[in-house]
Design brief:
Layout: H1 3-31, E1 44-52, E2 71-76, E3 81-86, E4 95-98, E5 101-107, E6 114-115, E7 139-140, E8 144-146, E9 151-160, E10 163-171, E11 190-197, E12 200-208, E13 221-226, E14 229-235, E15 242-244, E16 279-281, E17 287-296, E18 298-306, E19 325-330, E20 335-340, E21 346-352, E22 356-361, E23 367-369, E24 395-396, E25 402-403, E26 408-412, E27 417-426, E28 431-440, E29 443-452, E30 459-465, E31 474-480, E32 487-497, E33 502-504, E34 508-512, E35 517-522, E36 529-536, E37 541-547, E38 553-560, E39 569-574, E40 579-586, E41 591-598
Parallel strand pairs: 1-9, 10-17, 18-25, 18-26
Antiparallel strand pairs: 1-4, 2-3, 2-5, 5-7, 5-8, 6-9, 10-13, 11-12, 11-14, 14-16, 15-17, 18-21, 19-20, 19-22, 22-24, 23-26, 27-28, 28-31, 29-30, 29-32, 32-33, 32-34, 35-36, 36-39, 37-38, 37-40, 40-41
Length: about 600
């Protein structure tokens, strides 16, 4: 065979092979509708874990177990269910062979559980329940996209059981600081639960004390169901003449201890009046031992009189003195009450606890107290100076008691100094005192004394030499540069004669503010009229809005704030009927809320 013929035969065979391959390809395309392997990507796997978030922090800790038997559903973005599965004994679940597309997952919430906070840490160890999509079958994730050959095993769900926290506020009828079986609860009081969030406490919820469900007459009941976390409880008391029972009188175990009793009071005022100490709870805990006991207040009353004949006895024709300040202190020297005598010289200090107290009377300038305990209890003077100048001896109070005839007799003294005026002024970093006299006889020196509002008794802080003898106006000054804290400081000048006798000036005060604004609402509870004072360091337009108990706006008061530090804008709030109101104080840079109780 010739070479030409061989080449021709090979060419025909090559053409025949190419034609056969093309026919085969065409047949494959016809058989599978035109799709190739590249047009059918492999499906994806989606999972992964449902767990019991015992500490409620949204993070999968190593000691936190999975939850078995939870139904898990897969929905597409058309809201159609495409698959379902359940969690294993270890809490894991898996959707296999998921086609590319957009989906979300639904977890049928297990009985008694609530979903924890989502996206608190790295994706593999957090919870993905956001409930951004509403689905009546359970809790949902966000939408996500499945792509070619995808395996995403990070769709997790954390759950906790809410913690019961309660549970009684009671009337301590016999004042023994323990809830006895015959003592009733107190209904209608607001109880607040505060939760620690990012380093500070926020109001989590409020309950009102009432009848315990399932009981015939167990009043004073309250109960919260809260997530794991750290909390404290606050009981709000209206002005009904009740005093806190002493806390922890059965034992001093902390709230949450399994042996912490149910019959004592847990109000320790750690976070302000009417609050408990803090406590932490985990999923599955119960804190149902919190109690708050209250008993009737005690009172002290009496009068101040001028003993014109200096016989130590209240004679019928002797004048009664009005406007005298009377302060009550407990045995630790903490002031617990204050009032002034009325036009008849009478006073009464209430809201006192069942413990020992003493009183301090402030005499008017030019007067001193007479000798104590000269006659019968209803006719003598009780200023014994037992706990310092102008103080009484200890007065023992019981729950609901009223101690009467704690009286003070005063008499005029011969003045070696005629006071004209005294003033105190805050200058930003010091207090400037000024005073003057119109005449002085045998005057040796002046002692300057001060007292913070939170303290009992004045403290010596300096001395100024006197002119001695003068019948013209003499002017004096003193600058107090000691350290200051926020609050009110009181000053007075003690004048000392050459023979050691002493007299006091009137008392003056300054106020130190600890930030750029001060907001005070008093009295609260109110019996008809309250004062709202605003103090700020710069000019702000402030809106004051008053809402009633239903949330209805009933009054709005615009305020133009003075620009000087320490200058008050005072708003009189009156004309409100009995009830609880919310006062909103806000400007362009802050918003604060105060609650006002009108008890008239």
């Amino acid at each position: 065979m010739s070479i030409m013929k061989i080449k021709y035969t090979k060419l025909l065979l090559l053409i025949s092979f190419i034609f056969s391959v093309n026919i085969a390809s065409a047949n494959v395309e016809m058989l599978f509708g035109g799709n190739t392997v590249e047009d059918n990507p492999p499906p994806a796997d989606i999972g992964d874990f449902v767990w019991h978030d015992i500490n409620g922090d949204g993070i999968q800790d190593t000691n936190e177990p999975g939850i078995s038997g939870v139904t898990v559903l897969l929905f597409n973005d058309s809201n159609s269910q495409v698959d379902s599965t359940g969690t294993s004994s270890s809490g894991n679940y898996l959707f296999q062979d998921v086609s590319p597309g957009t989906y979300y997952i639904v977890f049928e919430d297990p009985d008694g559980y609530s979903s924890t906070s989502p996206n608190t840490t790295v994706e593999a160890n957090d919870s993905d329940i956001t409930n951004a999509i509403l689905n009546l079958k359970g809790s949902t994730t966000d939408l996500f996209t499945v792509t070619v050959d995808m395996a995403n095993l990070s769709f997790d769900a954390g759950y906790y059981t809410c913690v019961p926290i309660g549970e009684i506020v009671w009337f301590d009828f016999n004042g023994n600081d323990i809830r006895d079986a015959v003592e009733n609860g107190i209904n209608g009081l607001s109880v607040n639960l505060y939760r620690l969030v990012n380093g500070s406490y926020e109001l989590y919820g409020t309950e009102t004390t009432g009848l315990k469900p399932g009981t015939p007459s167990d009043d004073g009941y309250f109960k919260f169901c809260a997530p794991p976390g750290t909390y404290y409880v606050e009981v709000e008391l209206p002005a009904v003449g009740l005093i806190q029972a002493l806390p922890n009188q059965v034992n001093s175990l902390p709230i949450g201890n399994s042996n912490e009793p149910t019959t004592d009071s847990d109000i320790t005022n750690n976070f302000g009046n009417g609050t408990t100490a803090s406590f932490s709870v985990l999923s599955g805990d119960q804190i149902c031992t919190i109690g708050a006991g209250y008993y009737p207040m005690a009172r002290i009353c009496g009068l101040v009189f001028e003993d014109t004949n200096d016989n130590g006895i209240q004679d019928a024709d002797e004048p009664r003195i009005s406007g005298i300040t009377v302060e009550a202190f407990d045995i630790n020297g903490v002031k617990v009450g204050e009032t002034t005598t009325n036009a008849s010289g009478l006073y009464e200090i209430d809201d006192l606890s069942k413990s020992d107290h003493f009183l301090v009377f402030t005499p008017p300038a030019g007067y001193e107290f007479i000798s104590a305990n000269i006659g019968a209890d209803d006719k003598d003077s009780d200023v014994t100076h037992a706990y310092g100048d102008n103080t009484t001896s200890l007065i023992e109070l019981e729950a609901g008691s009223k101690v009467q005839n704690i009286d003070a007799g005063i008499k005029g003294i011969v003045l070696s100094v005629e006071w004209l005026s005294i003033s105190a002024e805050w200058r930003g970093n010091s207090a400037q005192l000024k005073w003057n006299t119109s005449s002085e006889i045998n005057n040796d020196y002046f002692e300057i004394e001060r007292r913070h509002k939170s303290e009992y008794g004045f403290t010596y802080i300096g001395k100024v030499d006197a002119v001695g003898n003068s019948f013209v106006t003499s002017n004096y000054s003193f600058e107090n540069k000691e350290e200051f804290e926020s609050g009110i400081y009181y000053y007075r000048i003690k004048q000392v004669d050459l023979d050691g006798k002493a007299d006091y000036s009137e008392t003056v005060s300054i106020t130190i503010y600890d930030n750029d604004r001060q907001i005070n609402l008093y009295p609260n509870p109110s019996f008809g009229v309250s004062n709202l004072t605003l103090v700020m360091s710069d000019s702000k337009a402030v809106d004051v809005s008053i809402y009633d108990g239903t949330g209805k706006l009933i009054r709005r008061i615009p305020v133009e704030q003075n620009t000087l530090v320490g200058i008050d804008s005072e708003i009189i709030i009156d004309g409100l009927s009995k009830g609880v109101y919310t006062i909103h104080i806000e400007s362009d840079s802050f918003k604060e809320v105060r609650r006002l109780i009108v008890a008239k």
